[in-house]
Design brief:
Blueprint: H1 2-10, H2 17-29, H3 34-42, H4 51-63, E1 67-70, E2 78-81, E3 87-92, E4 98-102, H5 107-117, E5 127-130, H6 133-138
Parallel strand pairs: 3-5
Antiparallel strand pairs: 1-2, 3-4
């Protein structure tokens, strides 16, 4: 977190207690919706944070490239530290479990889109929906 704080200061961003708490929550949670971040900071001993503060902080951190988001379903986006963003999300349609694989696993698809359509894909925001091993076995 110290490196992140240094870069925030260098870019003229205020390093508030709220932003520190939000970064700590994301570090602990891994992937989290803004509501999950709010729940985590509500139990960390600090004062309550309005949801608008959480959303604005997540947006500011994403603009700086420290946080990335993915839409895993039709609800709120899921945020995670950008240092851990080089993966594709696997979302089970049965139980809702979320797994991940390295982005390199989608390299053939990325290359095909580039070759066939000239489209350069960023799969780090990608969620692939399907069935996990347990749910597939039960189908």
């Amino acid at each position: 977190m110290a490196d992140l704080i240094e870069v925030m200061r260098a870019k003229g961003m205020r390093v508030t207690a709220a932003r520190r708490r939000i970064i700590a929550a994301l570090t602990h949670l891994g992937h989290a919706t803004p509501d999950a971040v709010a729940a985590a900071v509500a139990t960390d001993g600090g004062p309550d944070l309005p949801s608008s503060t959480i959303y604005r902080s997540l947006d500011a951190l994403e603009e700086l490239g420290f946080v990335s988001h993915t839409h895993l379903d039709h609800r709120a986006p899921t945020y995670h530290l950008a240092a851990h963003a080089d993966h594709v999300h696997l979302v089970c349609l049965g139980c809702g479990a979320i797994d991940q694989m390295p982005s390199a696993a989608a390299q053939d698809l990325v290359a095909l889109m580039q070759r066939e359509r000239g489209f350069r894909a960023d799969v780090t925001h990608m969620a692939i929906h399907g069935w996990c091993v347990d749910c597939e076995a039960a189908r």
